[in-house]
Design goal:
The chain is an all-alpha fold. The chain has helices at about 5-35, 40-70, 75-110, 115-145, 145-155, 155-175, 180-215, 215-230. The chain has one domain. Helix 4 (about 115-145) packs parallel to helix 7 (about 180-215) and helix 5 (about 145-155) packs antiparallel against helix 7.
């Protein structure tokens, strides 16, 4: 029978594999934005990768629950196990979000090829930045680097600004011609989805700060909002 430390090490490895598989789906999103079209072979690969992500999510949840029941861990390790359960669930949803983007890219290619160039010109730079943020989170998890997490959290506003700038560009595109409205709507939807993915990465980072430092940043943010309202 494994002891608690061995169980935690195994769970951390499973979580890291989940992160790496999700990173692959993100890479495929980036490649399709650059090519401005759906790649059927890459899409097929992501269908397989999604199954792997789902399997890791289930195993992480089950093994974490078993570890809690078997070892009755102290506060720090208990927080870690709960984080692994919640974060694995969120990563699974992030994988679903990225996979859904492929259909939108296909719809743009099929119904509005005249706006396909905006996949590369407008969305691609933002998603490259999001990938950097996501990989910073992975590195911070591996190295227990809270300083990298704090730096990462400051980049949230940068993504918001890029997404807002994209929205302005896409609205102008739709205003330019009625023929651009359908494709522009798809592009707006993609822009929102990638911004949401970035928000999820920030949630992962906040939870990891809590594990490493014992600081609940969400609670602090809520308290600060209450002060402002008063």
């Amino acid at each position: 029978m494994k002891n608690l430390q061995e169980s935690l090490e195994g769970l951390n490895q499973h979580y890291l594999e989940l992160l790496k598989n999700l990173n692959r789906v993100l890479d495929v999103n980036i490649e399709m934005l650059y090519k401005q079209k759906l790649d059927s072979a890459l899409y097929g690969e992501c269908v397989v990768v999604e199954d792997v992500i789902n399997a890791f999510e289930v195993k992480l949840k089950e093994d974490s629950i078993i570890s809690i029941a078997r070892f009755q861990p102290a506060a720090g390790n208990l927080r870690l196990l709960i984080m692994l359960i919640n974060s694995a669930r969120l990563l699974e949803r992030m994988g679903d979000l990225l996979k859904a983007n492929f259909k939108i890219i296909k719809d743009i290619e099929k119904s509005s090829p005249q706006v396909s160039k905006y996949l590369k010109e407008t969305l691609y730079p933002m998603v490259l930045k999001i990938k950097t943020i996501y990989e910073t989170y992975i590195s911070a998890f591996i190295n227990s680097d809270e300083k990298a997490l704090y730096l990462l959290l400051t980049q949230d506003e940068e993504i918001d600004e890029m997404a807002e700038k994209n929205m302005t560009t896409l609205i102008d595109l739709m205003k330019a011609s009625p023929d651009n409205v359908e494709g522009g709507t798809y592009l707006v939807l993609l822009n929102k989805k990638y911004e949401r993915f970035s928000d999820h990465v920030m949630h992962l980072a906040v939870d990891l700060v809590y594990i490493l430092k014992g600081e609940n940043l969400r609670k602090l943010e809520l308290l600060e909002e209450k002060k402002i309202k008063k």
